[in-house]
Amino acid sequence: MDVNKRQVGDVTIIDLKGKITIGAGDVQLRNAVQEVMNGGATKVLINMASVSTIDSSGIGELVSAYTTATNRGAKLKLINLPAKVSDILTITQLITVFDVYDSEAEGIKAFS
Amino acid sequence: MPVDYRFHLAVGSRFENIELVQVVLKDCLQRVGMDDDAQHWVDVAVREALANAIKHGNLQHPEKQVQVDLAVEGDELVIRVEDEGVGFDATQLDDPLAPENRLRPNGRGIFYMRSFMDDITYGSGPGGGTMVTLRKRFAGPKTEPSD
Predict the structure, then answer these.
(1) d(Cα B46, Cα B58) in Å, to the nearest integer?
(2) Which residues contact B134 (CB under 8 A, 6 or more apart)?
(3) CA B138 to CA B132: how far, in whole Å?
(4) CA-to-CA distance for B38 and B84, rounded, in angstroms?
(5) Nearest Cα to A54, choosing from B108, B30, B25?
(6) What is the pLDDT of residues B92-141, one digit of tens each?
(7) Which residues of A touch B97 (CB under 8 A)?
């Protein structure tokens, strides 16, 4: 999986591309979230637009990212969910846990 | 004549070997004419089975193997994944939908397998480890083109 981190104003955006699966993408996601949290980010968007596959380990890392952010007083939101990622979050009733937005602009606006 | 689709793979207990199995699996799913959506969900279910075998069954000991069998049985695709572990009780799993479990980082793999396949069953393999059998119905095997 490819991970890119960028800043738009005071919002940190993590762009993910590829598979978030056990032993590979899940670890990269964890490291990316830890890195931005340790850097003091308080508003984080995870851009899922180019995620092709996610498994239970990847879902677990998203949940961990959410709880880590919440415990630190930060806000973490998801944007641009592909249909199959949305489906897999829905069947485990996690879609209602995350703040999900259809675009980067909407996600950024939601922090204000 | 219907094509006889079956393969057997034995892979060491490394997560990167999941991708190896997926290459063969994808080819088989395309051969049996499964649509793209169904292929995706079977892919995810088999990933979960392999991940459990590697992580929980074989405890990531690379010398321990995971056996994978895929076959077409009637109108079903049948995938069996067997590890070299000590087995486990699949009835003693927490419900990932329970409010107290909703934010746990783990415990969803078997739930996803059950959601994406038509049937999954757990048992012991010939070697005594855990064997999970995943079944997915499909329209039927494609026939070989006549030459």
Answers:
(1) 16
(2) B42, B45, B46, B49, B78, B79, B80, B81, B113, B117, B119, B120
(3) 19
(4) 29
(5) B108
(6) 889 999 999 999 999 999 999 999 999 999 999 888 899 999 999 987 55
(7) 92-93
Q: How many CB pairs under 8 A join A and B?
A: 61
B87 band by pLDDT with thresholds 50, 70 and 90: confident
Question: What is the rounded distance in angstroms from the CA atom of residue B76 to the CA atom of residue B70?
Answer: 10
Residue B23: CB atoms within 10 A of its CB come to 8
Residue A51: how many other CB atoms lie within 10 Å? 23
Chain B residues at the A interface, defined by Cβ less than 8 Å, are 14-16, 18, 40, 43-44, 47-48, 51, 55, 96-97, 102-106, 108-109, 111-112, 115
What is the CB neighbour count within 10 angstroms for residue B51?
A: 22
The model's pTM is 0.92
Report the residue of chain B nearest A56, measured CA to CA: B109
Interface confidence, given as ipTM, is 0.92
Task: State the CB neighbour count (10 A cutoff) for residue B110.
Answer: 19
> How close are the terminal C-alpha atoms of chain B, in Å?
12
Per DSSP, the residues of B10-61 read EEES-TTHHHHHHHHHHHHHHHTT--HHHHHHHHHHHHHHHHHIIIIISTT-
- A residues 48-77 near B, CB within 8 Å? 53, 55-57, 59-61, 63-64, 66-67
